[in-house]
Amino acid sequence: MTTTIFEDWLATPQGQYVLNWEMVKHDMLLADVFGFNAVQIGMLRHDYLRNNRMPFRFRCDSIIEPEPPCEVYTDIHHLPFSAQSVDLILLPHILEFDSNPHQILREVERVLVPEGQVVITGFNPYSLWGMRRHFGAARNAMPWNGRYISVPRLRDWFALLGFETRAGVFGCYAPPLRHEKWLRRWEFIEYAGDRWWPFTGAVYVIQAIKRVQGMRLIMPTWADRRARAKATAAVTQQITQTRMFASTTSEDENA
C-alpha cells in the first residue's frame, strides 16, 4: 500500500521533479551494467530498467495492481529467486518505507551472484527535504513519513553484508516547493549544488557490488549462463501464472 501511495505522490509537481532526475541518473548508470537477470523491486508504474540491456528484466512487488506490468508478486522480504541467480537488483525508495529494511538487504545479498550489483534510491536526511520532514506539519503524509536512511549508514550496512560501494550521486537541491513554477525558478541551484554542496541533495542513487572474500570468480561459459538465466525466467513466469490463477479463482469464488 505504501508504494502505491508513494507512486501517487510522484504524479505531483514535487514527485515529478524527483522522478525525472532519478530516471535520468538510472539511465546513465545502468546502460553499461551487463548480465542476464535484472530485478526491480517496487515502483511498478515506472521502469527504472528501461535503459538496461539485460535480456531478462523483472519487476516485482507484494502489491497486486491491474495496470502496471509486474512479472512477480511476492513477499519482498523473501524473494522467490534462487541463491546467486540475479545480476542486478534495484531498490527505488523501498528501504525507507519498509519496517524491515535489513531483511530486504539480506535477501538481496542472498540472490545476487558474486560481483552482482544493487542500486538503491532514497531521500537524503541531510537536506532541505530532510529538514522539511523533521519540522514540517504534515510528517504523516507521503513522502515525509518515511525513515530516511543516510548514505553513510547505507555504506555501513553494505560493509556488514560484504558489499563494496562503487558509485553514488546526489541531486534535487531545490527546496520542497509544491508548485511547478517555483521549482523551475530554482533550476539554477542544480548546477551550483553539484559543484559546491553535493552532499545536500534531496535524493541519492548509490550503487554497490557484492564481493566474496577469498573466492576466485570463474565465470561459466556464455551458453551455461544463458541457460541458467532462462531457467530463472521460466521459474518466475510459472510463479506469476500460479499467483494470477489463484487471484482469478479467488475473484470467481467471491463473485
UniProtKB/TrEMBL annotation:
Does this entry carry the keyword Signal?
A: no
Q: Does the keyword Ribosomal protein apply?
A: no
Q: Which UniProt keywords apply?
A: Hydrolase, Methyltransferase, Transferase
Residue ranges constituting the Methyltransferase type domain according to the UniProt record: 73-120
Q: Could you provide one GO biological process annotation from this protein's UniProt record?
A: methylation
**Which InterPro entries does the protein's record reference?**
Methyltransf_11, SAM-dependent_MTases_sf
Q: Which Pfam families match?
A: Methyltransf_11 (PF08241)
Question: EC number(s) per UniProt?
Answer: 2.1.1.-, 3.1.2.6
Under Gene3D superfamilies, the record lists:
Vaccinia Virus protein VP39
Q: Which GO terms describe its molecular function?
A: hydroxyacylglutathione hydrolase activity; S-adenosylmethionine-dependent methyltransferase activity
Could you tell me what this protein is called? SAM-dependent methyltransferase
Species whose genome carries this gene: Georgfuchsia toluolica
What lineage is this protein's organism placed in? Bacteria, Pseudomonadati, Pseudomonadota, Betaproteobacteria, Nitrosomonadales
